[in-house]
Write a structure and sequence with these properties.
The structure holds two protein chains of two kinds. By secondary structure, chain A is mainly beta. Chain A is built from no helices and ten strands. In chain A, the strands form two sheets. In chain A, strands 2, 4, 5, 8, 9 and 10 form a six-stranded mixed beta sheet that branches. In chain A, strands 1-3-7-6 form a four-stranded antiparallel beta sheet, with no helix packed on it. Chain A starts with a strand and ends with a strand. Helices cover 0% and strands 47% of the residues of chain B. In chain B, the strands form two sheets. Chain B has a five-stranded mixed beta sheet with strand order 1-9-8-3-4, with no helix packed on it. Chain B has a four-stranded antiparallel beta sheet with strand order 2-7-6-5, with no helix packed on it. The chains are: A mainly beta, B mainly beta. At the A-B interface, strand 5 and strand 9 of A face strand 3, strand 4 and strand 8 of B.
Chain lengths: 114, 107
């Protein structure tokens, strides 16, 4: 597709389970970002990938959160041993290159931890 | 932390201009100012961006002060559909968003 694609759109899981969220950026975009948005809150930066460089993980809230980007394209955000406070919408965005161009967002993955 | 500060909320009458301010006093010389908005339950949407000069497109105008320490997004004729959270961000590598301004357009 032409836009940023995220899956699943909705995920309900039990506390303590692991979850994986997927992001497929726009083809050719070298920069990819993950954000978290809790209900009624702003966008919280999580992690940033730029090409083959080491990712900027400074926004990850705990070591239960990790992300990878394989082949410079698809990215997976993994949350281990989920907690109720992890419930949020997880948004992925991409842009052509760092410092240039607009950021294109996916529609997000809504995670609910029971 | 985000490099910008914005008012938490603003109201605007339908049909009137909405002027949304943003302070970015620590902006560097080569950093752009970008504006996005997020309508309830949707992903953020790009509006406009600028470096030094004022910019205008079909959605809005962006006025940047000469010292570049602040800017104003102008929606010239606000409609009810412009009700959203508006984010002003200084574009660096990590693209950190602040809390934004919740604009409510009232009939």
């Amino acid at each position: 597709g032409a836009g940023v694609s995220q899956s699943p759109s909705n995920k309900v899981t039990e506390k303590g389970k692991d979850v994986e969220l997927r992001c497929d950026p726009i083809s050719g975009h070298t920069a990819l970002y993950w954000y978290r948005q809790s209900l009624g809150q702003g966008l919280e930066f999580l992690i940033y990938f730029q090409g083959n460089s080491a990712p900027d993980k400074s926004g990850l809230p705990s070591d239960r959160f990790s992300a990878e980007r394989t082949g410079g394209s698809v990215s997976t955000l993994t949350i281990q041993r989920t907690q109720q406070e992890d419930s949020a919408v997880y948004l992925c965005a991409s842009r052509l290159w760092k410092n240039t161009g607009e950021l294109f967002f996916g529609e997000g993955s809504r995670l609910t931890v029971l | 932390d985000a490099k910008t500060t914005q008012p938490t909320s603003m109201d605007c009458a339908e049909g009137r201009a909405a002027n949304l301010p943003c302070n970015h006093s620590t902006i560097s010389g080569n950093e752009y100012v970008y504006w996005y908005r997020q309508i309830h339950s949707q992903g953020p949407q790009y509006i406009i961006h600028g470096l030094k000069n004022n910019e205008t497109n079909e959605m809005a105008s962006l006025i940047i002060t000469e010292d570049r320490k602040s800017s104003t997004l102008i929606l010239p004729h606000a409609t009810l559909r412009d009700t959203a959270v508006y984010y002003c961000i200084v574009v660096g590598d990590d693209m950190r968003f602040g809390a934004g301004t919740r604009l409510t357009v009232k009939p």
